[in-house]
């Protein structure tokens, strides 16, 4: 897999996650957040095991260790995203969860003591400006009616940034199989959320046929396929790079919210979405081929 193919695969994952917020909103009409998350991760894990069982032989201890760590972090990710859906708009859920693009390089800089290059910094700032235009009111103030849900979504973004960095570290070990890691983390997340469901709710499968479709799509496409693809693709690209691609989730979520949930965006929001789309294209362009930009954009800065 080349870096471009990895980016395209991750972009398709992002499209699925943009759709997932609308499907989550539907599914929450039938079950609580813990029950929904346990269903989607356990179903995703079981389907993956059935389809690829031969590839799950000879799993290393390091792969199991990291799968439990990633599963614990994913619990926080999905608690933030799912409860956030209950307390803010679908558009805001998608947009604020996209703040992963900001938190990933910040955490990376703290851990590795390496600042992002100028090109990546420019793209991050552009994405941040886009998210601000998408989420703030017209006078650029905070919408306090949605504050609780917005804060939960921000927690989701921070946790997912940590997930990207842990995955990036895990797949560098020779004895960690990226594909197996992607499958096993589904099972550990499902186990953790099922325990929480028994504590705070009454776990159950979808009670009506109309809820099975959304839950199965969330389980198979938005969870199973998505996290396995992410683990494999991260062997070929950096966590900060992935975070920028995943910021497109906010745009896809806004489109779905408009088309299916009838949430109408303002002109300010559309400008923000355009900035985020442009940031993806800028990130993918190799400016080293243009001598005028070479010295400006391609420069690594390190802490002294």
Summarize the structure.
With 304 residues, the chain is mainly alpha-helical.
Notes on the protein architecture:
The chain is mainly alpha-helical. The protein has one domain. The chain has 13 helices and two strands. The radius of gyration is 19 Å and the shape is globular. The model has no long low-confidence stretch (mean pLDDT 82).
Question: Could you say which overall geometry the principal axes of the C-alpha atoms support?
Answer: globular
Mean residue pLDDT: 82
Count of separate DSSP helical elements: 13
Uncertain stretches: none
Structural class of the secondary structure composition? mainly alpha
Helix content: over 70%
Can you write the helix and strand succession as a string? HHHHHEHHHHHHHHE
Quaternary structure annotation: single chain
List keywords for this structure.
single chain, about 300 residues, mainly alpha, two-stranded antiparallel ribbon, 13 helices, about 0% strand
How is the secondary structure organized here?
Elements: H1 3-27, H2 33-52, H3 61-87, H4 90-97, H5 100-112, E1 114-115, H6 118-135, H7 147-170, H8 178-200, H9 209-233, H10 239-246, H11 248-259, H12 267-284, H13 291-297, E2 301-302
Antiparallel strand pairs: 1-2
